[in-house]
Amino acid sequence: PRHIAFDDFKSGRFAPSGMSMILMNIENHRTIDIILSRRNRYLRNYFLRYDRAARLAVRTVTVDLYTPYRHLIHELFPHAIIIADHFYVVAQAYRALNKIRVKAMNQAGNGSHQWRALKHFWKLILTPAG
């Protein structure tokens, strides 16, 4: 496929490392394979089973923001653009926003009106406007 995605998941005793990878075709949303380990050495050996022409045909790879995956993708799929999975982008934005909220609470002072508002109504910050 020209557009693939892979993501790790906890697979317990199913895999030697306890974590596996699901490989998907983004165009038709079908699972291509379950890879038994998320370790770079195992992933490299897995993808090298495909000939170079097939790997060069891959245009996009959607993956989480784990740095070792990016290096591996550049090596194995040199023509592919790496796309950050939207779930991880949103999670990272949420963590950054929450860090700012806690900093503002600490600056306002424990027990102040602003502190209580930020403490109790934090979900409103995440609510879409409109």
How does this model look, in words?
The chain is an alpha/beta fold. It has 2 domains: 3-84; 87-125. Helices cover 45% and strands 22% of the residues. The protein contains 6 helices and 5 strands; from the N terminus they run βββααβαβααα. It has helices at 40-47, 52-56, 67-76, 86-108, 113-120, 122-125, and strands spanning 3-10, 19-25, 30-35, 60-63, 81-84. The chain has a 5-stranded mixed β-sheet. Helix 4 packs antiparallel against helix 5 (113-120). The radius of gyration is 20 Å and the shape is elongated.
Task: Briefly say what this structure is.
This protein has 130 residues and is of the alpha/beta class. The protein has helices spanning 40-47, 52-56, 67-76, 86-108, 113-120, 122-125, and strands at 3-10, 19-25, 30-35, 60-63, 81-84. Strands 3-2-1-4-5 form a five-stranded mixed sheet.
Secondary-structure topology with pairs:
Layout: E1 3-10, E2 19-25, E3 30-35, H1 40-47, H2 52-56, E4 60-63, H3 67-76, E5 81-84, H4 86-108, H5 113-120, H6 122-125
Parallel strand pairs: 1-4, 4-5
Antiparallel strand pairs: 1-2, 2-3
Helix pairs in contact: 1-3, 4-5
